[in-house]
Amino acid sequence: MDELQNKTVLSIQDLSISFGGIKAVDHLSFDVDEGEIFGLIGPNGAGKTTVFNCITQFYKPNHGSIRFKSKQGKTIELTTHKVHEVIGYGLVRTFQNVELIKELSILDNVLIGGHIDFKTSFIGQAFNTKKSKAEEALYRQEAIEILTFLGIADRKDWLVYGQPYGILKKIELARSLMCKPKLIILDEPAAGLNDLETLDFAKVIRQIRQRYNCSILLVEHDMRLVMDVCDRICAINFGKFLAVGTPGQIQKSPTVQAAYLGTENPA
Ligand SMILES: Nc1ncnc2c1ncn2[C@@H]1O[C@H](COP(=O)(O)OP(=O)(O)OP(=O)(O)O)[C@@H](O)[C@H]1O
Ligand SMILES: [Mg+2]
Question: Is pLDDT at 131 greater than 90 in this prediction?
Fold first, then answer.
């Protein structure tokens, strides 16, 4: 396996996966750079979530390679790893439908994200030793700092149940930041957000990149967010590559326009 070049954090090469007779992803390639906010767009059913699931190893592709430069600085072929291993390399995800534990407080939900890094043994935690208590305090402090950064620390002790959608998305982001990510991948973060919340979310994404020095891969159906926030965008349809470029270039691309207007042919 070739090492990734300096600025590349994720490299997808010739990725394919089929479900029955449907080629959900068809020989797709693109690269994401370090510190980049990158968008993957396409109409409904284009294959975006499938690509996402291949990156996180939730699906195993039939063909192709997905290389990632881990936070330990090593190039890793993700397709040879398991779902739970990927997070330890610094690749974290959020879900298309927010997945939080509604019966727990906002702070507790965020702390769950930090547990991936816990140094104390399970036995230590179970007996609540001095070391594990100190570690817990450190994680609490970190979680509160993240919630403050996202502007929702005043709600930390509230239950997740009943929180507005915009807040739920921020809690999910806070949880992913606890894992000290190198790359955060977000599946349709703007879905369910109103215009004002979408604008606020775009601001938060830029701030996260700056403060946490990470890359962000957005998988989006909604054009507003991607055009506003992404450095570069890759457009796909019927699982196939259409174009890659700046938001301006993508907006002007006749192939992309045809795909969104539904005049494209799958063949
Ligand atoms: N687990 C699965 N089993 C069978 N077919 C699937 C599965 N997952 C995806 N597909 C099919 O693969 C194609 C791509 O679906 P995918 O969900 O990746 O699209 P998408 O771009 O995320 O769409 P949306 O904008 O609606 O979220 C579709 O034809 C879909 O029906
Ligand atoms: Mg999808």
Answer: no
Which ligand 1 atom is at minimum distance from the Cα of 52?
18
CA of 140 to the centre of ligand 2 (A): 33
Q: For residue 75, which of 12, 179, 5 has the smallest C-alpha distance?
A: 5
- Residues 44 and 172: their CA atoms lie apart, in Å, by 24
147 pLDDT more than 80: yes
- Domains detected in the chain: 8-103+179-261 (3.40.50.300)
> Which residue, judged by its Cα, is nearest atom 18 of ligand 1?
47
- Kindly tell me the sign of the dihedral angle through the C-alpha atoms of 211, 30, 57, 19: positive
Up-side HSE of residue 166: CA atoms within 13 Å toward CB? Answer: 15
pLDDT at position 118 is 47
Type of residue at 17: I
State both tokens at 235: 């457009």
pTM: 0.88
Query: CA angle at residue 12 from 10 to 17, to 5 degrees?
Result: 140
